[in-house]
Amino acid sequence: xxxxxxxxxxxxxxxxxxxxxxxxxxxxxxxxxxxxxxxxxxxxxxxxxxxxxxxxxxxxxxxxxxxxxxxxxxxxxxxxxxxxxxxxxxxxxxxxxxxxxxxxxxxxxxxxxxxxxxxxxxxxxxxxxxxxxxxxxxxxxxxxxxxxxxxxxxxxxxxxxxxxxxxxxxxxxxxxxxxxxxxxxxxxxxxxxxxxxxxxxxxxxxxxxxxxxxxxxxxxxxxxxxxxxxxxxxxxxxxxxxxxxxxxxxxxxxxxxxxxx
Length: 261
Fold this sequence. Notes:
This protein is an all-beta fold.
């Protein structure tokens, strides 16, 4: 969704769009906490997984403002630990979009993903998250792509005592969308600082191919966040995203809560 991070379809986040329709499905999270995890509102995926028989529900809210338009997204993400190193993830979206004198509100597209940590040695881990974008949103109303798409991201994680570093490189196959590129690439890097047991701070940068085939500039964003552990099963968070060039949406404000059991 998803940059801001904007996506033409729900799934790995992209960072710009030639129209509000791309801003619509903005805000897509590539974030699933696990042990030694990043979390909402961090954009960059980490290699952590839930663990066998464990579940997580991430409730993410995002409001994006760009020249001539505004968008709101509620993106609940449910993760199920099938094995210690493998998660199954479902992420529907609900969108409220306005711009160019029009307003659209309703269900957006849905991401169905798998996340596999295939290598782990000490603080270093490698993983992959990949899946499909299910066209559950109305393309006629600007709430969805109108057809299925595919996405995948390679994850590199290094976790120390107080600092963790994450890097992603990914690709999105959007398919045949009028006036948009069919295939997009994205990269991002993040650092998460554990200030103490209950507080973590994050900073990251990311960029992606411009969905507009007439524009060569890759939209780029910077995102900052704070995550507070209220109880062992509940985190709350807030974040702010700003553009690094004029190809990206102007700003995004994020808030969320994460429940684990």
